[in-house]
Specification:
By secondary structure, this protein is of the alpha/beta class. It has 10 helices and 12 strands. The chain has helices at residues 20-36, 50-59, 85-93, 104-118, 132-138, 175-188, 202-215, 230-242, 277-288, 317-337, and strands at residues 9-14, 40-43, 61-64, 75-78, 97-100, 122-126, 145-148, 165-169, 220-224, 246-250, 266-271, 295-299.
């Protein structure tokens, strides 16, 4: 594209930002703080966004890497990415009251893993090694699950019975990349079974679809999101594949390098599924001050899905936590008397 005076514009993706699972998880932390008071401990980042985590920390959330870091008798919340059964067991041993904020779509993948493992399938989990969601899903059936981190991993995959192989996936992957991996697996195991429904989250797919539509028309795409957010990183990749000359990931408008705008007529703007819209508004304001005031919406889908809050928020968890510690103390006293 060739820039001409007065032709600068912004293509704003819709949908963008918070998905239903993220919205549910963030509200769950806020409600827990409101209902039970600080601190509320959260195992890992509730969602992968720097701004959201820092905002919740200021309100009294304490983020920890391991369950053992949570003091006995406290409340701990599990993040939207889900955890393995061993983590629930750790919380029980630590006498912790728990709130499970796992996204229901991630829970669906966990249940699929359990079901296929019970039927003695080899499960090929497409995802990125080390990602919290992958760790949680793998923990549901570790003896049955093999991680496949892209098409290049397929050559090394071994299974017990080529007739009993199924694939599942991390919910935040690129749709195209996932299907490329699935095709590679099918090339090796022609009778590969697919899950009953697509594992990739509806919000991930919709945001990628919007970026594909605007990427072809954009000189530059700015994706608002954190670097540890898988779905945000994928949006940068999708933008480039769709034809954008450049695409960058930023947490804040202040991270935009003004040199990126040199010779640029059309800028696409979107955000990952864990990004509040206030951060996108800051980017639009930054661009408006640099003569990119014409904003056009690129709508790829309508979203109306909502999820109810975790059921644990309807109980008095503070009392539950105290009773757990009390019961343990009474049991200890009883044992010492014996």
């Amino acid at each position: 594209m060739t820039a001409t005076p007065g032709s600068r514009r912004v293509l704003l993706a819709a949908p963008r930002g918070y998905c239903a699972g993220v919205d549910r998880a963030v509200i769950a932390v806020e409600k827990a703080l409101e209902q039970y008071g600080a601190p509320i401990y959260v195992r890992h980042e509730i969602v992968h966004n720097k701004y959201v985590v820092q905002t919740l920390e200021r309100k009294g959330a304490v983020f920890v890497e391991q369950t053992e870091e949570v003091p006995e008798g406290s409340i701990v919340m599990f993040s939207a990415h889900g955890v393995a059964p061993t983590v629930h067991a750790e919380a029980e041993r630590g006498k912790l009251a728990t709130i499970d904020a796992t996204c229901p779509l991630v829970t669906k993948v966990h249940k699929e893993a359990i079901r296929y493992a019970q039927d003695d399938f080899d499960i090929l989990l497409i995802g990125h090694e080390g990602h919290e969601e992958v760790i949680g899903t793998s923990g549901e059936a570790p003896e049955h699950i093999t991680l496949v981190d892209g098409p290049e991993d397929v050559a090394n995959v071994e299974v017990r019975d080529p007739e009993k192989v199924v694939w599942l996936s991390q919910t935040t992957l690129s749709v195209d990349e996932t299907m490329e991996t699935v095709d590679a697996i099918k090339g090796k195991f022609p009778n590969l079974i697919s899950p009953p429904s697509d594992d990739i989250c509806y919000a991930t797919q919709n945001r990628q679809l919007a970026v594909k539509q605007m990427g072809a028309e954009s000189d530059l795409v700015i994706v608002v999101g954190s670097r540890n957010s898988s779905n945000s990183v994928r949006l940068v990749e999708v933008a480039k594949q769709a034809g954008a000359r450049e695409a960058y990931l930023v947490d804040y408008a202040s991270e935009i390098d003004e040199s990126w705008l040199d010779g640029v007529t059309t800028i696409g703007v979107t955000s990952g599924a864990s990004v509040p819209d206030v951060l996108v508004e800051e980017v639009l304001e930054y661009l408006s001050k640099r003569d990119y005031a014409d904003v056009e919406i690129v709508k790829a889908a309508e979203e109306s899905i909502t999820f109810s809050l975790p059921k644990e928020l309807r109980r008095d968890l503070r009392e539950e936590a105290r009773s757990l510690v009390g019961e343990a103390g009474e049991a200890g006293e009883s044992a010492s008397k014996e």
